[in-house]
């Protein structure tokens, strides 16, 4: 009942807002014409009195009478047009009023037939209490989050919610959920691989040392875990170790079942790696910090890590100044910055390296291709 009362009041207000202007009548033109005619009649009477007293010549009086008559005729014609306009406006107001009244009547009738005016309102709390089969994905997630907020030690709940977060692109929340599931339910290959994937996606595709450790734990629990193997091979590519990456792809393909969904991505990655190896030829030893040093820096305190980074970068920068024609050295420098979360420094190093190698040279193209796998492009 309250719905119909509110709807009626809103409809009435909207209708009055349209009808009231239509109900007004403009009388200004008609009143003005009547006044002009009265003035012209008075002028004729005054003209007759002047003639009777001999104040005006008969010929002049006749001309004045003719002019006043012409004015009376024009005023009468204008009055006729005003009357016609008023009649037309009245007809328009009637049609407009009928249209304004017809719209709410028709819409109310349709809603009464196809709508659900008796359906009670459903606040979020009531929607979350309904059957899961009748809930949307967002409502199910909200229900799970509400449950975990009240029961944070429910490891099974975290385990269910973590891959959902991952599929929805909520990578930081997915990583937190995976960590809680591992802490409460124990470590499994699927949970560790999922954690590594969430960390990698949250880092814009960079397989950091934290992600690598998660993937390595997954492989210890399940040596043929495809997701962990794939991302660890990707880490080799990002580290500039193309030959080792190709061997990792080959070993992975030898173990994957024929119907595995990982075969396609792995074959594509191997083909791309072989293509890049063929373009650049045998890899030269690179300079700069090793992966072990990078991992050690990532696990240090902030102060110690900053000091170690400054030392590594200073040493690598000095070597690259002496020998700037070293694409592997530039790759390791860029990779080091990204693993440590310094994307601006990585981009600056990339631009310097590309300028030193030459964007159109073979080494320059190799370096640009490597940077592209890390999310950097020459246009930046």
UniProtKB/TrEMBL annotation:
Alphabetical list of Pfam families matching this protein: TPR_16, TPR_CcmH_CycH
Any single GO CC term annotated in Swiss-Prot or TrEMBL for this entry: plasma membrane
SMART domains: TPR
Membrane spanning residue stretches: 94-114
Localisation: Cell envelope
InterPro entries for the chain: C-type_cytochrome_biogenesis (IPR051263), Cyt_c_biogenesis_CcmI (IPR017560), TPR-like_helical_dom_sf (IPR011990), TPR_CcmH_CycH (IPR056413), TPR_rpt (IPR019734)
GO biological process, one term: cytochrome complex assembly
Keyword S-adenosyl-L-methionine: no
Domain Cytochrome c-type biogenesis protein H TPR: 146-261
Keywords of the record: Cytochrome c-type biogenesis, Membrane, Repeat, TPR repeat, Transmembrane, Transmembrane helix
TPR repeat locations: 155-188
The protein's name: C-type cytochrome biogenesis protein CcmI
Lineage, highest ranks first: Bacteria, Pseudomonadati, Pseudomonadota, Alphaproteobacteria, Hyphomicrobiales
